[in-house]
């Protein structure tokens, strides 16, 4: 009987052992790879993925004390309850523990559970390994995890603040922050960001066929997306100039007060587009920066795909524009070599997306910019500026300023002031540079415009001037063209301005001011500012031409509205406010307010309303029959002269 009882007890014990183990499908403890330089502080988060439901967890963390040093006790992220204050002995292995004995249900959230802070001590690669010691659920059953992670810590040499005195034997992968005093013996494969103070001794073997508008190296590319507050939008990230990779890891950084990365349940709305192999399910914890990773460990050759690789779904929280930057963490090829990708950015904006076609009805308020095509019906109120193209019908009222081009039909009323010279404007695309006035040591502004724009997506122009006469202080974009590229900080003649709208789907046909130059005048006289085209292309990649233009910066006084010292060849319509020193060749139509110092050679048509206070130096013309006849002849000649002048003026206006 005792033997039978012992067998039953043994069976019960075995069954109880089987019942206390719970297997969790896909549960894992995760830690990410890290890169740093000697002396850097490294922050390493530890996360739980596919949490099966637990109330206690104990983890052991292994690392190489000679490569990295734990500088402080790890911090609890608050995801799990029952945090136990860890040991003050900061050594490997290090144990962290949670045990929430008072809970009535399991903790099932995924995310970061603790954060470790290390200091990088030595160059090379080392590892951080997680080991599950024990985990239990609310029923007291042990819970197992399918995977515990190992992270690779890659530590490079400490960066020096000053350049080395002698160049290194091998060129560094990244250029130094400051240029070296002496050029390197061998030219670098890529040009430096800043020009060197001295030119290289030998020119490059072959010049580039065409200057590149797009980056020639590997890079991330974003897009501009339009939406409204509360709406969700999809933002796609692409890669270009892919050198061939088998793994890629990058981070997307954004303003969490302006955008929210959408999460449905435990799934973050980030979609792999299937063009890179080895997609790794990203972290369920939504925060900026957010990391995406691909690693094709079985690849035998590089993936050279260019194009869209992933899509993020964001909810717009605030008005305005918000940038999302894409920065490389690490990329490698099939040989294990590290590769670089230039950062890129996307823009999410609540501004209205421009339509390709004009609206059928005019807007209640005039738009800030004129439409590319004139509307079929004229607006009720005249625009402040004349339209770029003349309207088919003349306006009911003459504009305050004459149009740049003559209208096909004459206006019903003549303009108040005739143009100085008939204009012969070019019909071909051209630059326009205005004349500017100023004094020595004064700063003045010169505007650069384009006219007869055939439709472009990129433009590069050269500004040439005499550096002994003018000093260029700055160049500013005026927003007419898209894709402004910040010009070189080294300001000298010739100076290059560039626009390249690489995302444009249609040509920009706008005309007007494109840039504003601020010069300081160094010398008296007239100084030329020449604007020449380097290259311009349309959306089809065709080269476009623009005629050069020369503007004048002068220290001569700007013409004023005051009378000139010498009389004009033609009489003005209105008398001058002050009498001229010399009488005019022709009599004025109306008598002057003040008597002239000398009598006129001919009498005026109308006598003055009041006698003059002082007698004139000359007697009045003779009276009587002879005097009356002579006076009548003079009047007739004057009236005929005035009539001829009016007819000539009318013909000139027409």
In short:
This protein has 654 residues and is mostly beta strands. The protein has helices spanning 2-19, 624-653; strands spanning 21-23, 28-31, 34-37, 41-49, 56-63, 68-70, 75-76, 83-84, 94-99, 111-120, 124-136, 142-144, 147-148, 150-156, 219-221, 224-226, 232-240, 247-253, 259-261, 263-264, 267-268, 270-272, 279-280, 290-295, 307-316, 321-332, 344-349, 430-433, 436-437, 443-451, 458-465, 470-477, 484-485, 495-500, 512-521, 526-537, 549-554. It is built from two helices and 37 strands.
Characterise this structure.
With 654 residues, this protein is mainly beta. The chain has two helices and 37 strands. Strand 20 and strand 21 (267-268) form a beta hairpin. The radius of gyration is 41 Å and the shape is elongated. Residues 7-24 and 621-626 have low confidence and may be disordered.
Question: What is the radius of gyration computed over CA atoms, rounded to a whole number of angstroms?
Answer: 41 Å
Mean pLDDT: 80
| Tally of helical segments | 2
Strand content: 25-35%
Percentage of helical residues? Answer: under 10%
Largest sheet: 6 strands, mixed
Number of strands: 37
Give unreliable regions as ranges.
7-24, 621-626
* Large-scale geometry: elongated
N- to C-terminal distance = 133 Å
Structural category: mainly beta
List the helices and strands and how they pair.
Elements: H1 2-19, E1 21-23, E2 28-31, E3 34-37, E4 41-49, E5 56-63, E6 68-70, E7 75-76, E8 83-84, E9 94-99, E10 111-120, E11 124-136, E12 142-144, E13 147-148, E14 150-156, E15 219-221, E16 224-226, E17 232-240, E18 247-253, E19 259-261, E20 263-264, E21 267-268, E22 270-272, E23 279-280, E24 290-295, E25 307-316, E26 321-332, E27 344-349, E28 430-433, E29 436-437, E30 443-451, E31 458-465, E32 470-477, E33 484-485, E34 495-500, E35 512-521, E36 526-537, E37 549-554, H2 624-653
Parallel strand pairs: 1-12, 2-13, 3-14, 16-27, 29-37
Antiparallel strand pairs: 2-4, 4-10, 5-9, 5-11, 6-10, 7-10, 8-9, 11-14, 15-17, 17-25, 18-24, 18-26, 19-25, 20-21, 22-25, 23-24, 26-27, 28-30, 30-35, 31-34, 31-36, 32-35, 33-34, 36-37
